[in-house]
Amino acid sequence: MGAERSSHVVYKNLTNGRLFCQSCSMAVGEPEDVRDLKNAPTNYHIHSNGNYKRHPEENYDSSASSASVSQLDQNGTVRRRAPLTYLDEPPARGLTGITNIGNSCYFNSAIQVLSNSRPLSAFLRSQANFWIFADKRLCWQLSSHFQQLWSRHPNPYIDVSMLLSTFKSDNRFFNNLRQHDAHELFRCLLTQLDEELSEPMFDYEENLRAKKPKTSPQNDTSILGSTVGSRSVIKDIFEGRIESTELSLSMTMNDINEPKLEKTEKEDPGVTTEVSKFTRMVNSFTDTFFSTSIDLIGCLEEYFKPALLFGDNAYRCEKCKSPQKGTKYCQISSLPEVLCIHLKRFKMDAAGFKQKVSTHTLFPVYGLNLAPYALPECTKNGAKYELSGMVIHSGNQAESGHYTACCRNLDDGNWYTFDDKDVMKIDPIDLLSREAYFLLYQRIPNEKQRLGGEFSLLTKMEKNWNQSEENFTHYICREYLERIRSFSNPGPIPNTSFLCAHGKISPRKSNNIEAIVTKIPGSAWRLLQAEFGGGPELESLDFCEPCEKELKALCKSKEMELRQFAFEELDFFEQWRADGRNPTQLCVVPRVWHEKWMSYVTRLDEVSPGPINNKELYDENQDPLPCCPPRGKTVSQKSFEMFVELYGGGPTVRCMADWDTGYAMYMERLYEHAMSMDLKKTELYVPSPNGDSYLY
């Protein structure tokens, strides 16, 4: 500002407490005399970058009912005050930036959209779930950073270098300082979270839900049950399914037309008038400023329209084994809680170089309806979505540019842009002018669940909470109660996840049972069970002695298997080192299989790794790939034979002479570790009904 004194009008955002100068068009700091005004609505200090920090020494006057908008001169002198009513509530959380530690904008933007994805954010921030993350490095750090991002006393920005380092250590492709693709990062991050949070599903769970627990375990080969799949909160949030059907069809070549995208103006009758007005305003805006654009709805219609099968893609009849002209239909058979739509922003040109696709894409902010593309049975809980966040790529080059995120805040419902450390509020209509790279949509509850007041399920439950403690008679998963608030439909009550085949507490879960379950009133249980199903009903927590005995025997078997592997490797290593360290004496197993096996023999809740599949280590000519590392793991011949005997599979793959196996370094570390401790004192702990542990 110049030397001349001037008056600037400053506006205060009553939701987040920020100050904005109309003349300078920027956020400004808050002068002392304004902050100390008697009627100041909050006790939050506004930083020059627009963020806020609470001052605990200041008393928050919740009885105040008005504030002042002040006109200030360049020295901060108050020139005019005007009374202004406001809502007595603290600023919205989740408005914390993330430091860019060097080409990390791709990571920061993905973290911000995940942080503002209600189901995942609620799960990772819930203190009831902390015990789950204790031995899961990525989940634990992500949970810790989400807590910082959503703190009531936030810093302007946080540092996620440790989280990024943890992720890179498990994903070598990202282990450098280059700019990476945000969507590839997003997919890898969810995959790793899914692996860490995955739990086995057992064959007896369906019987428990049907109230048919096992009663004669002595006739079973394994009372612990066999696995029939896995579950994880990542699958529950992000997983959907598409079914395809191929039908034979007689047609002429004249029936085949090149598909074209056409822009249509259709108003969904199920969308409210307010949303329809917003849509018309958006259409007017985009028609004015974007002459060449495509419509996301048109892309979905094109994707799900019947595809003609002919030529090389012809339908092959199962009976006559001959190619036939046909049609392929695709429909959604399971809708995800959070829908991720990836827009193709990069392509390879004729010369093999990666290019940026800057075509503008129109997408709905509210009321994305997937019902036309889904099977009727999967839409009963609602098939409409609203945008919750998106990642934007700015720049003309595919190998450079900058990533930012736009997210709808979970506290105040406003939209904000997250540009590393900088956070700024934006208007929803501004979203349409951004080059969206991928979009996250949150499923909207159907009309029955959205009703408020006395018809609200949550309200009914909370009324039941105001009862004496003696009415709290039923046990339920703590995580499920959080899902009721954060999911559009929480699904059936998953009490089978911590029970054994006999309907009692599984020994796999007994050590953490107090963190897993909580008590609720019987009336609340009946309300939930009638609305969502599931179960079974539990009024007491009983530990299962037969399952505990079998688990102890299984742990003993795992311990012996691990010791045998260690002794075999150490014996072989001494001879191998004396013979000149010839790589061809080593065998190879898939690295992924070896990691699953290590988890299985060292953890209670892991399942068998299954047969070895070394076929993935061969090329199409059945020649071994030079894949060790990173795809293969070297072991001795005796250890490989032990694995095949216990788990089956194959075939045998030996190391090549020119492979850098890393086996010597690995075995030297194992050898030093073995020399420093007595392997016979290896400890395995098994939980007992009284909370103690058995030591082997």
UniProtKB/TrEMBL annotation:
Residue ranges constituting the DUSP domain according to the UniProt record: 558-659
GO biological process, alphabetically ordered: protein deubiquitination; proteolysis
GO cellular-component term (any): cytosol
Region (Disordered) residue spans: 47-74
Keywords: Hydrolase, Protease, Thiol protease, Ubl conjugation pathway
Catalyzed reaction equations: Thiol-dependent hydrolysis of ester, thioester, amide, peptide and isopeptide bonds formed by the C-terminal Gly of ubiquitin (a 76-residue protein attached to proteins as an intracellular targeting signal)
SUPFAM superfamilies the record matches: Cysteine proteinases (SSF54001), DUSP-like (SSF143791)
Family annotation (Pfam families): DUSP, UCH
E.C. no: 3.4.19.12
GO molecular function: cysteine-type deubiquitinase activity
Record-annotated USP domain positions: 96-444
Family the UniProt entry places it in: Belongs to the peptidase C19 family.
Name recorded for this polypeptide: Ubiquitin carboxyl-terminal hydrolase
Organism: Mesorhabditis spiculigera
Lineage: Eukaryota, Metazoa, Ecdysozoa, Nematoda, Chromadorea
